[in-house]
Amino acid sequence: MKEWVIALFLILLFPITSFSTTEEFIEVRASENSISFFPAEGSFPFLITRLYLDNKGKRNFNLLPGSISLKDIEEGSHLLKLEVLDKEKEVHTSLYEINIKNNKMASFQLLVLQGNRLIPITRDKKGERLLLGLIKQEKDSSSLISLSQKFLVLFPESDSSEGVLFNLANIYEEREEYPKAFFFYKKFIKDYPESEKLGRARLRIGKILFGYGKYDEARDVYEKTLAFFPAEEESAKGLFQLASGYEIGEDYEKASAAYETYLLNYLEDSDYPLGIYRLANTYTTLGKILQGKIVIIKEEEIEEKEEEETTKTSETEEKPKEKKPQLSPEEKEKKAQVYYIQAYRLYEAFLLLYSNHRLCFDSQLELAILCQELNRYQESLNYLSSLERKNENKETIPKILYYQGLAKQSINEYKE
Predict the structure, then answer these.
(1) How many C-beta neighbours within 10 Å does residue 375 have?
(2) Basic and acidic residues bias: where (predicted)?
(3) Has this prediction a pTM greater than 0.85?
């Protein structure tokens, strides 16, 4: 591992002790002849590090050069301050106390701020219990992050490190610092592959990827995670986002299957009404695709056509790949009507169960339009007239009037 070393050349043979400096970024080591700092294992990327020395604990810090002779340091107690600028442009600070007597290093220890006091932390069971106790008592998220990161570097083999690391990632997620949350969830998965929280960590990674618009990566994470952790507490949200990812990627068959699974298994989830609405939309889209009203060209189809052309021009006599059986126009129309009926029932259920939901207006409008696909023109006209009277969304009035006109025209044609 490449070192970033600022050496304070010391005389005494001092046993090596390692401390966290600025949270997750650096590990400080005091050895027999120097004080050095390194990127801690699994550390979040940092940009700049600076080490300062005060004047006998008076908080008058001066920036240290690349190396400094022991002769230049007065005897007594001093504070070392290490500042790190991380990749997210956030500055972090850690304090250490050094005590020099008779030109020798007498002591070196990490200091943790608790209220107005600086508490020394030793790298033993006593220090572990003390730091863990401070973590459990701390309410401020910034202080909790600092304490947690120090704990993870000081006591990586502790039985408590698993929970501290997961909670650290969770804190970053709650603070919407998603790159760091993503980093520490990944570290958690790597360090604790047998953890009971493994499924939850993977789902959180999928959620972060989804939030950044990396839908393909998010879908891959969700698919693999839900296959092995179907009963995880956050599986409902994961499955819903998996379905949404398929829908965004225009893979409506997989989207409908995922939404169906979600609706069958998570009736109490807060997104359940939205799941009904989205599945109805997906069924409607599938019906229109079958009728040729929506055309979606998938990458696989383009690749198949390119392979066909290559096969035709090739001199080799390879058997062409078997194509998927194509539905006849009558079969497509019949299947489209089945999708429309399923969507119709879902929209009706939505309006019945969630009459005060924010999507109630949209659901009724979609249902009115869908009725025309099912040749239920009078029913469509009734829904549209009701929406016109509500006048909740003026932007949709032209659309409502347009479909009203279509419904009236179809009714008149039927009478004639």
Answers:
(1) 11
(2) 310-330
(3) no
